[in-house]
């Protein structure tokens, strides 16, 4: 008998039609974006969490056993050019929550590809890739066959490291470059009615900078430095103990089972919005690694996060600057709520706010 299927995920905010659409309709990025605007579609993007990986692997194995497939037959199905020849992709996508079928398709094929996990690129491979692109253009499947790397890896290597390499600069950014990047991102976000943290096509940004900086360089410079500086009245902000305190309690309030499930874009609020999602994720990882022996903790998903949260909450158990430590009675989701709860429960005096300028007890 085949193993029981994985538990069905909850429906999308009660919208069964949208949940069915995500699992069954092949929509590209533009179509998904249109559905978000027109129909209020909600779906997940970004890296798959540890929990999602487990659900997906269980669904794939259940399908294999139920259909009586060998591992080779399963691989033939996954890498078939006829992706709609049966219900495989629909069934395994239904095991997840809010993931579009096209995203699951690419994720599974990338992770199970025989050419995956090949490590650092060698100079000879870069030369081979450069020649392949010169001969074939950006036809990544054909380029992949020539280079011996996955199509997505070839594409990313080319776009992030090799394209325009002769014109590309390395090292510190000049003031003029920072101003140019800021102007370009402003035109693509704020001047289009969006905020500074909206997603942009970094390849386009790189092109508009004349290829002097690559798409990855532009993205990192913006998310790690310039966006925070602009939102802090032109001054580069400094990460404070209160910022760390707020971050820990915000993560705690999410009720996630593993930190790979965190959508970092959801953490900032109107009182705490200087730090980009990428910066918050990096700060979290730094705090996590500060826990002695964190590598030896249980890696059973939620239990690992629970262990770490208890340690971090103890380390950040009171607002920096106070002399009182009191355990939280309720979970909070906003920066303002975090500091107000402590002020009421601990009867604390004024403390220094984080770099964002949050007013606490009348002090900014």
TrEMBL record:
Keyword Nucleotide-binding (UniProt): no
InterPro entries given in the database record: DMTF1_DNA-bind_reg (IPR051651), Homeodomain-like_sf (IPR009057), Myb_dom (IPR017930), SANT/Myb (IPR001005)
Annotated ranges, domain Myb-like: 113-162, 165-226
CDD domains recorded: SANT
UniProt KW keywords: DNA-binding, Nucleus
Taxonomic source organism: Rhodofomes roseus
Name the UniProt record assigns to this protein: Uncharacterized protein
Record keyword DNA-binding present: yes
A Pfam entry, by short name: Myb_DNA-binding
Lineage: Eukaryota, Fungi, Dikarya, Basidiomycota, Agaricomycotina
All residue ranges annotated as the HTH myb-type domain in the record: 119-166
Cellular localization per UniProt: Nucleus
Gene3D superfamilies: Homeodomain-like (1.10.10.60)
Highest taxon, organism lineage: Eukaryota
Predominant subcellular localization, coarse grouping: nucleus
